[in-house]
Design brief:
heterodimer, A: 247 residues, four-stranded antiparallel β-sheet, 9 helices, 38% helix, globular, B: 324 residues, 2 domains, 0% strand, flat, binds adenosine-5'-triphosphate, binds magnesium ion
């Protein structure tokens, strides 16, 4: 299979002042791949995926996204971002716009899509995350789970090549977690390329092609879910898994 | 909204202790003032006899009547609905003010005669100068706020020097500096543009700080969400950040508008025929100062009320997304 690399990370390091957050990270994401990143708090998971759409800058190594190399003098960062969807822990919907507008503005203002068509696409994706009836409400009027599904729809409306998720369920009440995970599982089944930072191990087992374990800014271990959960190679991974699966 | 509790407490103005205390306070205040020589004394003549000779008895009777009227008023209003309460109290306060002005023995025909000119020349100039100034000030404020928040040292330095300087100098001095100082540099400037420039620069400095704090009040996540969709700085600022900052920015900006309306009277020192200037000069000839000053005051107040109404409308518009 001749795989197309959507994200290619080579020897990337990043510092916050003197503190090294990422150390020689190597990672490739191919089209259609579903990757789950896990690891203890503060291990640099968020920082890493935020480097993929350059919300954060890296200082060493190369990151190539969709064929474009990210660096601090690049003029076409918008070109990268419109092809990379991102879903945040705290949803970050635009509170001054209705749900529908939240989903329409990206295509309208970035791609110049006419309003009627943007509305059609938005409704179609809201349908897909199963909340078309909330289209004319404002974000504050929705539950956390609904807001997160709107956030997913908002990203999907841009028809991105890859979706990044940064702990999309960890700010949600338990009964809302499943509705968001179901949405994400559905996306995965349809072949969306995804990189998810999450601690939902059942989700990882069910949909991930590869699970990546990070600790202290390094990729310690990666593998298919069966191998990763069944037979972890590193001591640190075993410790992490034993702690997280205890609950 | 203060978000009141859902349990209704007894109305304050219907509590006996409150009514008693109010009564005592009003009685004490009016006992301290001798009103026997005023129209209130005349009004009480049937009870107290010749007001000037009624002495302590007259004073007490007047104070007692006022206190009783006041308390009855307060208690009765307590029964009305919110809107009616507001309307009645506004009306009563207004009537009190009119009664106060009446004591000046104003010549109404004189006021009526001068009012048209006061409006067409004075009020018009005031509105025109303030409106242009506020528009320029807002533009300066957005630029200044962005500069003050930027990581560009040059922009930050210029913006912070500007706000420091123009907030630090009295407006009157700025008016003189621009009107008398700029010609020294070779720019001859008329009185009206000089006034507009001074007002714009001064208010732009205050509003820079208002806009800066408004922009800063927006969560960082909004910037990140906007960027991650692919919006550049301009789009993010115009469509995502500023619209959310506006509800924070508008109340203090409304304050600035109203305050500018009246501060525009300072430009009269360089001979702009705005409202305050005309009010003083028109009254001078016939020594009818009070007539003109009160007319001008009413015009200023009327304008401010208009602005308050506009502000309330805008605030309501931006409250939409907060309704649950
Ligand atoms: N702006 C910053 N300045 C300095 N240090 C930072 C900054 N942002 C993050 N860090 C540090 O970088 C490290 C990695 O942070 P990151 O948010 O990537 O961790 P994480 O793996 O996502 O953790 P969590 O599971 O808690 O979200 C942490 O030690 C954090 O304290
Ligand atoms: Mg994180």
């Amino acid at each position: 299979m001749s795989a197309e690399k959507i994200i290619d990370v080579r020897n990337v390091s990043k510092w916050y002042g003197a503190f090294r957050v990422l150390t020689d990270v190597n990672l490739t994401v191919e089209r259609g791949e579903r990757i789950v990143i896990c690891g203890p708090s503060g291990s640099g998971k968020s920082t890493l995926i935020r480097c993929f759409n350059r919300l954060e800058a890296h200082q060493q190594g190369d990151i190539v996204v969709n064929g474009i190399t990210l660096h601090d003098k690049m003029r076409n960062v918008g070109e990268v971002r419109k092809n990379v969807g991102m879903v945040f822990q705290h949803f970050n919907l635009f509170p001054h716009m209705t749900v529908l507008m939240n989903c329409m503005v990206g295509p309208m203002w970035i791609k110049g899509v006419p309003e009627a068509e943007a509305r059609r696409t938005a409704l179609q994706f809201l349908e897909r995350v199963r909340i078309p009836e909330q289209a004319n409400k404002y974000p504050v009027q929705l539950s956390g789970g609904q807001q997160q599904r709107v956030a997913i729809a908002r990203s999907l409306c841009m028809q991105p090549a890859v979706m990044l998720f940064d702990e999309p369920t960890s700010a949600l009440d338990p009964e809302m977690v499943s509705e968001v995970l179901e949405t994400m599982t559905g996306l995965a089944r349809e072949g969306m390329t995804m990189v998810c930072v999450t601690h939902e191990m059942a989700f990882a087992r069910a949909v991930a092609d590869r699970v990546i374990f990070m600790n202290a800014g390094q990729v310690v271990e990666q593998g298919k879910p069966d191998e990763f959960f069944g037979n972890p190679q590193h001591e640190r991974t075993r410790l992490f898994l034993s702690q997280i699966l205890k609950h | 909204m203060l978000y009141p509790d859902t349990v209704e407490s007894e109305v304050l103005v219907h509590k006996p202790w409150f009514v008693m205390a109010t009564f005592a306070a009003i009685l004490a205040v009016f006992l301290a003032i001798d009103l026997t020589g005023t129209s209130m004394g005349e009004f009480m003549r049937p009870v107290i006899g010749e007001p000037a000779e009624s002495g302590l008895y007259g004073r007490f009777a007047i104070a007692f009547v006022i206190a009783v009227l006041f308390c009855m008023n307060v208690v009765l209003i307590g029964f009305a609905t919110l809107k009616v309460q507001i309307a009645i109290v506004w009306l009563e306060l207004l009537l009190l003010f009119l009664a106060f002005f009446k004591t000046f023995n104003l010549s109404l025909p004189f006021m009526a005669e001068k009012l048209p000119f006061l409006i067409t020349q004075g009020l018009f100039t005031t509105i025109y100068v303030s409106a242009i100034s506020i528009i320029i000030a807002s533009a300066i404020a957005i630029l200044g706020a962005v500069a003050k928040l930027s990581t560009n040292g040059f922009a930050y330095a210029v913006a912070s020097f500007y706000t420091s300087f123009f907030r630090g100098l009295p407006l009157l001095m700025q008016v003189y500096l621009i009107y008398l100082g700029l010609p020294q540099l070779g720019f001859i400037i008329d009185a009206v543009p000089a006034g507009i420039l001074a007002l714009s620069l001064c208010y732009g400095a205050y509003m820079t700080e208002i806009f800066r704090s408004g922009i800063q009040s927006i969560d960082r996540g909004q910037w990140e969400a906007s960027r991650s969709i692919g919006f550049g700085f301009g789009l993010t600022m115009r469509k995502i950040i500023l619209p959310q900052a506006l509800p924070v920015i508008i109340p203090p900006t409304g304050n600035q508008f109203i305050s500018m309306l009246k501060d525009s009277s300072l430009v009269s020192v360089i001979g702009v025929w705005e409202l305050m200037f005309l009010a003083r000069t028109l009254g001078q000839k016939t020594f009818q100062h009070m007539e003109m000053l009160i007319s001008a005051a009413m015009l200023y107040w009327g304008l401010s009320i208009c602005l308050e109404l506009v502000q309330a409308r805008i605030e309501r518009h931006y409250a939409r997304s907060k309704i649950r």
